[in-house]
């Protein structure tokens, strides 16, 4: 039996993910993966935006990415679509990716270290406004 608490929940969520490094995330996006940024506007303003990321609020993430949802984004084309979720530090993105997998999006994962890991890896930030989806 798993012990209670957020750390146990995080460990359980990550056990089903093939988490990607920032550099692996760049390659995945080049290969067609969706890069989904769940950070708040304030955090994006503080850290910057990732090139090619689609911003989806965490509160509507499942509805926007479920291909069967009437509220999906156009890029949510199938349950086999690769999706990489990012957040500030790589914690809430793990829980979000596990939720997407439970929804049937078997290739959902997240990026190790979040946007802070991206910045630490020396990868570029976007020079364009974020692609925010309501």
Model description:
- GO terms for molecular function: transferase activity.
- Keywords: Transferase.
- InterPro entries: GlpE_sulfurtransferase (IPR050229), Rhodanese-like_dom (IPR001763), Rhodanese-like_dom_sf (IPR036873).
- This is Rhodanese-related sulfurtransferase.
- Residues 29-127 form the Rhodanese domain.
- With 134 residues, this protein is an alpha/beta fold.
- The chain has one domain: Rhodanese-like domain (Oxidized Rhodanese, domain 1, 3-Layer(aba) Sandwich).
- It is 37% helix and 13% strand.
- It has six helices and five strands; from the N terminus they run H-H-E-H-E-H-E-H-E-H-E.
- It has helices at 6-15, 22-30, 41-47, 61-65, 92-103, 114-120, and strands spanning 34-37, 54-56, 83-86, 108-110, 131-133.
- Strands 4-3-1-2-5 form a five-stranded parallel β-sheet.
- The chain is globular and about 35 Å long.
- 32% of the residues are buried.
